[in-house]
Each structure stands twice: as structure tokens, then as C-alpha cells.
Amino acid sequence: MTVTEQPHVLIVEARFYEDIADELVKGATAELEKAGVTYDRIAVPGVFEIPATVRFAIRSMELGAASQHYAGYITLGCVIRGETDHYDHICREASHAMMQMALDHSIAHGFGVLTCENYEQAQVRAAVDKKNKGSDAAIACLRMMEIKKDLRLTTR
Description:
The chain has 156 residues and is an alpha/beta fold. It has a single domain, classed as Lumazine/riboflavin synthase (Rossmann fold). Helix content is 49%, strand content 20%. The protein contains 5 helices and 4 strands. It has helices spanning 18-34, 50-62, 86-105, 119-126, 133-150; strands spanning 8-14, 38-44, 72-80, 109-116. A 4-stranded parallel sheet has the order 2-1-3-4, sandwiched between helices.
């Protein structure tokens, strides 16, 4: 890969709440396209599977098996509080795993996992014509990619 090639991002999207995921992806991809950044999408069943999928992509690059080099990662999904403490465990473990991966592997990451009290909150946060948190996650990822380049951790 040459220095002049466009950066490429991996979007990992939890599909448990498909309509919420679709809105998050719509917001994220619009920002990436505006920035001229290409992307791949991988769907996973839920938020808990996001960190492992990102790690699989990183490991594939480490092994030289990857067909694509990812300059950044955007993780999207939604966890809605229910009747048990399952919500607390999923939110804490997924966010902790992604933060640790960002630190351990120096990845540019935009965290777009919604943690909401109810479905209505999730809809407002995901909607591109309202809070547009997918866009926010993409903007964060793009900025972290710039910082890595400024600090000479990457040429892309």
C-alpha cells in the first residue's frame, strides 16, 4: 500500500436492534463518505461480540492474512436497560474491552454504542435527523486517525 491511498475503516455493527443499527450506520457512513474514507462493514449479533470482531481484524493484519489494512474502527450498536443487571455487564465489558484494545494496539476508534434506558431514547440518539450518534462516532474515529498520522504512528 502506498502513502497516497485513501484510508480504510472497519465498521463493526451490532444488529440486535436492526432499525437502530441502520440509523447509526447511516450517520457513520455519511461522515466517512464526506471525508473520502472507504470502509467495510461487519455485522455481529450484539454489542458483546464487537470487541472480539475488532480483535480478529487486528490479528489478521498482524499475521499478514488481512486483505485490507484498517486505519480506524467504528463500533456501533445499542444496549437497552431491561429487568436484570445484564445491561450493566454488557455495557461495562464492551466499553472496557474497546478502550483496552485502543490502548494496547494504538487503534483509532470511534465508539458509537448507545447505552439507553429505553427504546425511545435509542431512537432519538441514533436518528440522523436528531442526535446522530453514528456521525459522532465516525467523526471521533477520523480525528483519532489524524492524531495517529500527526504523531507519525501511521502514514495513512
